[in-house]
């Protein structure tokens, strides 16, 4: 299994707008995505108000690629959120049980 950690930092002043997108669109989308075993969404905290993340556990690299394409190491974002996001990062790991 593949553990995927996706982190974003919002543009200043876009925290609330991104939070709405995160809770209303992104979380339900990821929870309903074929190939994801578990998803742990991380919302902003008071000390890091512009940071959000997802930790996802995928069945396999093939399942991940079926969702994001061959370029799975690039942190893709929905066009609807592009203007809200200042930076993003992604990391992949082999899951250890």
From TrEMBL:
Transmembrane segments: none annotated. It comes from the Bacteria. Pfam families: ABM (PF03992). InterPro entries: ABM_dom, Dimeric_a/b-barrel. Residues 1-69 form the ABM domain. This is ABM domain-containing protein. It comes from Roseovarius nubinhibens (strain ATCC BAA-591 / DSM 15170 / ISM).
């Amino acid at each position: 299994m593949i553990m995927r950690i996706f982190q974003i930092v919002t543009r200043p002043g876009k925290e609330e707008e991104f939070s709405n997108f995160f809770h209303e669109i992104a979380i339900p989308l990821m929870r309903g995505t074929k190939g994801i075993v578990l998803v742990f969404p991380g919302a902003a905290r008071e000390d890091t108000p512009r940071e959000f993340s997802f930790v996802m556990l995928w069945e396999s690299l093939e399942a991940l690629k079926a969702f994001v394409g061959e370029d799975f190491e690039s942190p893709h974002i929905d066009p609807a959120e592009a203007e809200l996001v200042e930076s993003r990062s992604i990391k992949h790991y082999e899951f250890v049980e």
